[in-house]
Amino acid sequence: MVDLVSSSSSKFDELFQASWANDHFVYEGDEVLKMKLDYNSGAGFRSKSKYMYGKVTVQIKLVEGDSAGTVTAFYMSSDGPTHNEFDYEFLGNTTGEPYSVQTNLYINGVGNREQRLKLWFDPTTDFHAYSILWTPRKVLFLVDETPIREHSNQEDKGIPFPKDQPMGVYSSIWNADDWATQGGRVKTDWSHAPFVASYTGFEIDSCVVPATVAAADYSKQCSSSNEKKYWWDEPTIGELSIHQGHQLIWVRANHMFYDYCTDTARFPVAPLECQHHQHRH
Description:
Family: Belongs to the glycosyl hydrolase 16 family. XTH group 1 subfamily.
Largest sheet: 8 strands, antiparallel
Structural class: mainly beta
Order of helices and strands: EHEEEEEEEEEEEEEEHHE
Function: Catalyzes xyloglucan endohydrolysis (XEH) and/or endotransglycosylation (XET). Cleaves and religates xyloglucan polymers, an essential constituent of the primary cell wall, and thereby participates in cell wall construction of growing tissues.
GO molecular function, one term: hydrolase activity, hydrolyzing O-glycosyl compounds
CATH architecture: Sandwich
Helix content: under 10%
Strand content: 35-45%
Shape: globular
Enzyme class: transferase
Number of helices: 3
InterPro entries: Beta-glucanase-like (IPR000757), Beta-glucanase/XTH (IPR044791), Beta_glucanase (IPR008264), ConA-like_dom_sf (IPR013320), XET_C (IPR010713), XTH (IPR016455)
CATH class: Mainly Beta
Number of strands: 16
């Protein structure tokens, strides 16, 4: 399955560019990029291309020490008012407290699909791989290849699924002390600035959608045909192995502490995509 349209690279400059606060970027050798947040500004980068399907990975070492009030985000998003988005948001915390990871999906401009979990390691002491796998059948969030969230295509039930908008890849660090830590009760302590998130291991194995392609042809461009075979069209891709299925159950049972599907205060009737596989608590 050789495919020249896919790009896979570990080099930041080939895939990404700074999108704001260029002076808050520090390059450490060829491999490591650091973005810093201080009282003046956060920082962000974005991919040079837009993509359909595939797998995106970046290795991140999160802000050490007291990171309360800060958010580091890694996400894919399309443009426009009815955009699609797949989010990781790493919510800082006071020294010694574990980080929270919030994931969310926006589909056709609608989000409200938050899940929150604590990681099973300290994400500030080393680089860990955070991945988004997007196929026509599902979206998977993976941490060091362990699945932490699975969002399946249930269009057969009338539930929309992200499949017709190419997405850019983004990351940013910013001050969100109005909500990030304990619901906004703990504020950012600027005496600990700058807050630094470090990045390495940039990989995108996806279908590049050139800006010249008409919207009607997006999915044609990135679907397998006689001429080209894309790995994400294989029916088994993204299907969890028995081991991964057990890992996901373990993560949900031991590390997840918020799931929109079981939040009866927000959703007295469970959202449609939650109803097939989840019993209400």
